[in-house]
Amino acid sequence: MQIPHKKAETLKTRPQSSQLGFGTIFTDHMFNMDYSPDKGWHNPRIEPYAPFVMEPSSMVLHYGQAIFEGLKAYRTADGGVQLFRPQDNLHRFNLSAKRMCIPQFDEAFLLEALIELVRIEKDWVPDGEGTSLYIRPTIIATDPFIGLRASNTYRLFIILSPVGAYYPEGFNPVKIWVTNEYVRAVRGGVGQAKTAGNYAASLYAGQLAHEEGYTQVLWLDGVERKYIEEVGTMNIFFLIGDELITPALNGSILAGVTRDSVISLAKSWGMKVVERQLAIDEVFAAHAQGQLKEVFGSGTAAVISPVGKIKFGSQEIVIGDGAVGSFSARLFHDLMDLQYGKTADPFKWTMKVA
Length: 354
Ligand SMILES: *Cc1c(COP(=O)(O)O)cnc(C)c1O
Description:
Blueprint: E1 29-36, E2 40-48, H1 59-63, E3 66-68, E4 71-75, E5 81-84, H2 86-99, H3 107-120, E6 132-141, E7 154-163, E8 174-179, H4 196-211, E9 216-220, E10 228-231, E11 235-240, E12 243-246, H5 257-268, E13 272-275, H6 280-288, E14 292-299, E15 303-312, E16 315-318, H7 326-339, E17 350-352
Helix pairs in contact: 2-3
Bound molecules: pyridoxal-5'-phosphate (PLP).
C-alpha cells in the first residue's frame, strides 16, 4: 500500500540525544486521515507536520470526543529501528474509539501507515541510552456543531516526538499520594478508554499531590474509595510476600501494554502473579507485617517507576529501605533490553521496521 507522501520543504535541525526532554519537539512529517459517513476513513496521507485549521465550533473542543495512544520506536545496536507490541496499542485505540462513539478503523492498515511514517522519520529515532521516538496516534471529532451528539466527521493523526531518558538522573523511587477525595474514573465510565477527558479530570488531584511534595496520585476506586486502581497514568504492582499483585481490570482501569508485559515476564520467571481487587488498607497492613517488599508503576513512558513512599491520610509508609527493589530493577532492565533489541525476544513483542 502506497500512502501519498508530501515532503517538507525544509527539514528541522534535530536535537542532540543528550538535550531531549519529553513531548516538546516534533518531527518533520505527520500522518493524517479523515472520516466522513459517506467515504468512511479516507484520504490517508503523510505530509509536513503543521498546525490544523479548525472551526471554533469543532465538537472536540467542546465535548472532548478525543482518544489517543502512546508507543515508542527504539534504536537498536545495529542502527535499526523497532517497535514494541504496536498491534496491541492499535487494538486498544479501536477499543477506545468504540467506547467514545468514534468509527472503527482498519488496524492492519493503520499499522502500515504508522510504520511508513516511522521509516520516513527514522533519522529522528535518537540513539542515546534510554531515548526513543514517542509515537502519538490521536483521533478528534471535527463536526462544526455545538449540539450534543457524536460527531459525524473525524481526523485521525499520528505525530512523532523524540524523547529523552525518563530517568536522566538515575532510576530513583517516587513518592506517591493516595486520595480518597478525588477519583479518576468510575465503573461504567470511561476509565478504560484512553480518552482526553480522563486526563483533564486527573489534573486537580495531581496538583494537590505536587503541592504536598508527591510525584503522582494513587487512585482508588470511584465507588467505595477503598480499592487501588492506578498511579498517575501508570498501572501499579505490589510485591507482597512472594506474590506479585496488580488490580484486576475492572472497566475503570486502563489496560496497559506494559502491565501485560510485566505480568508475562514475571510469570516466565516462575513468579506467582495475581490480578485481583486490592484494598489500600491491605497494602498498609502488609507493610505493618513486613510483607510489602516492592511497589512500582508500569507504563510506556517510564517503563517501570519504583515507588519509595506512599502517603494516605496522616500515615506515610516507606517501601523496603526506600531504594529501588531488586525485582523492579530486574523488570526495568529486562523490559528495556527487549525493547531495544539487546536480548532475544521469546514473546515476539518487537517488530523491526528499519
Ligand atoms: C497509557 C496509560 C497507562 C499505561 O499504558 P501502557 O500501554 O503501558 O503505556 C496506564 N494508565 C493510564 C491511565 C494510561 O493512560
